[in-house]
Each structure stands twice: as structure tokens, then as C-alpha cells.
Amino acid sequence: MGRMQQNRLAMDRFLASVERRAFRMAQIATGSREEALDIVQDAMFGLVKRYSEKSEKEWKPLFFRILQSRIRDWYRRNRVRRRWRIWLDSGHKPDGKEGEDPLATLADPNAHNPAEESILADATAALDSALRTLTLRQQQAFLLRAWEGMSLRETAVAMKCSEGSVKSHYSRAVHALRNLLEEYWV
Amino acid sequence: MSEEDREKAFLERARTLLDKSEEDLDANILSRLRQARTRALQGEERREPRSWHWFPFPAAAGMATALVAILVAVFYLTRPPVLEPHKSIGDLEILASSDQLDLYEDLDFYDWLAEEKEHNG
Questions:
Q1: ipTM higher than 0.85?
Q2: C-alpha to C-alpha distance for A35 and A29, rounded to whole angstroms
Q3: Rounded distance between C-alpha atoms, residue B37 and residue B39, angstroms
Q4: In chain A, what is the straight-line distance between the N-terminal and C-terminal CA atoms, in Å?
Q5: Are A33 and B29 in contact (CB under 8 A)?
Q6: What's the mean pLDDT in A84-89?
Q7: How far apart (Å, rounded) are the C-alpha atoms in residues A132 and A4?
Q8: Which residues from chain B sit within 8 angstroms of residue A89, using beta carbons?
Q9: Which of A16, A18, A180, B87 is most exposed, with the fewest beta carbons within 10 Å of its own?
Q10: Of A35, A128, A45, nearest in space to A73 by CA
Q11: Rounded to whole angstroms, how far apart are CA atoms A79 and A6?
Q12: B17·A123 Cβ contact <8 A
């Protein structure tokens, strides 16, 4: 088997190992399956196009760096659209009320639900909603540190910021999430 | 239970839920991720972003852009900033950033390599 073919197989294995997590990170950030798929696809293209010749151990930090950049790009583009939509929506609401509270989907701690799957789905939906109340930087820091298990240094590389910023964003994220969710979970 | 233990338990619970959500992705998403991976490996050109598919003609896109620019200008001139005040400081860092990934990604990579060498060596 030629070197190129081996490299391609290795890249295929790597992308297969990170694609689900990447999709979920993008989905949490955007709230949309379609946008998340676009972002993950972009990140895959970016990695293959620019870095497939780099050593395999460098792929993971680079992939997550590209992914987070794509999410930030999406966020910047959509910030204007979102403000515009909010403005239009508020025009239909004389009292200027905001949209549905994202925490409205939090599971009722007193609710009786015998199906474990359903309870898990509710808990996951609550976690997603709570994550979406964070700033994007806090959300990124939390998902990369707490879920992906990246070190402070790797997270700083992925987020293109200092380790001090990561610490601060992560700490605020954990504090906010515990405030929102802990009483439902413990 | 100590504060540290409570935080540890909370993080463990969050990880478990996130792992489960990853495992439970539906077949349609998995299939589309597989297709995206295959396209990336084959080096196929990426399709146009979905958000522009509804603009069939460049002239229409130009007129729409001009209209949106006018409306946005009116919006910013006539209304104070609204909503999500708790997010604004964190967002500022992202919104103020002018980094263009396509232009700087390679430079970033070499910066990163240099930092790695410094850090490890």
C-alpha cells in the first residue's frame, strides 16, 4: 500500500473518530442540525486540504482549532441576523417580551417519568439549553475542557486565546451551569 | 459531600449525557457525516453555503444586500442595543476579532509549532 493511501486511511479513521463530537459541539453552538453539518464539513475540508501531510498527533488540536474558528465565523455572521430577527419579532409584541425562555425545556424535577430513555433525553435537552445560555467562549471552553478532555494549553490553542482566558471562561461556565442544572440532577 | 466532590459529580454527569447524545445521533446525521468525510478526503469542492441558495441572480442579491444595509443602519440608529446583556462582554471578544481563518491559518500553525517546540524543549 502506498504512502498516500495509508495517509488517506489514517485521515479517514481520524475524521470518523471526531465527527460525531464535532457535530454535537457545532449543533449546541448553532442550535441547528443543518448549520452544524455545514460547519463540520468545512472543518474536515480545512484539515484535509491544509494539514493531511502533518503528523497524525497534530491532527486533533488542529481539527478542533479549525472547528472552533468555523463556529466563531458562523456566530459573527449570525449575530447581525439574530439582532435583526429579534427586532422584527419585538415589533409584533407590544410589551417587548423576549422569545421563549431557553430554560423552559428544563425537566421538571417532580415529574414522574418511568422511561429511563425519556428521562435521559430530558436531561440532555436541559443541558443543551443551559449550554446555549452561556457566551460562546464559555461554551467552547466547557465543551473542550470538560467533554473533550483537552488540557488548558490545548484548549487555548483551539480557542485562539490565552490559557488565562480559558481558565476564566471555563470557571464561569461551570459556575453558571451548576446554578442552572445542579438542583435537577442531584 | 465537599464542594469539590459536588463539582466532580456534576461534571461527570454532564460528560455522561454528552457522550450519550453523541452515541444516539440518528442514522441520517451519521450518513451525512460519512458523506462529508468522503467528500473531504476526495478533495471535492464544497457546495455553496445553504444560506445563499435562495438568491438565484447576482442582481437580486446585490439589491437585497443594499436593502438590508439600509434597514440595518436604520435599526442601529433608531434603537438602543437590546437583549442578552450578560452575553455582551463575552461576545465582544469574538465580534471584535477580525481574524480571517483562510488568510492566517497557516501562520497560526507555524506559531503553534514554534510554541510547541518552546514548550517541550
A1: no
A2: 10
A3: 5
A4: 53
A5: yes
A6: 64
A7: 41
A8: none
A9: A16
A10: A35
A11: 42
A12: yes
Cell 456566530 belongs to residue:
A75
Please tell me the pTM assigned to this model.
Answer: 0.69
Whether residues A146 and B7 touch (CB distance < 8 A) is answered with no
Q: How many CA atoms lie within 13 A of A39 on its CB side?
A: 30
- Give CA separation, A8 vs A51, A110, B20, B41, in Å: 12, 52, 29, 7
Residue A72: the pLDDT is 93
Identity (one letter) of the amino acid at A33? R
Calpha distance A74→B27 (Å, rounded): 25
Closest to A67 in 3D by CA, of A30, A31, A99, A42: A42
Q: How many CB pairs under 8 A join A and B?
A: 143
**How many CB atoms neighbour CB A144 within 10 A?**
26
For residue A46, what pLDDT band results from cuts at 50, 70 and 90? very high
In the predicted structure, residue A93 carries a pLDDT above the cut 50 = no
- Which of B105, B118, B119 is best to mutate for the A interface (most A CBs within 10 A)? B105
Count of beta carbons in the 10 Å neighbourhood of residue A89: 13
Is the backbone of residue B81 left (phi > 0), alpha (psi -120 to 50) or beta? beta
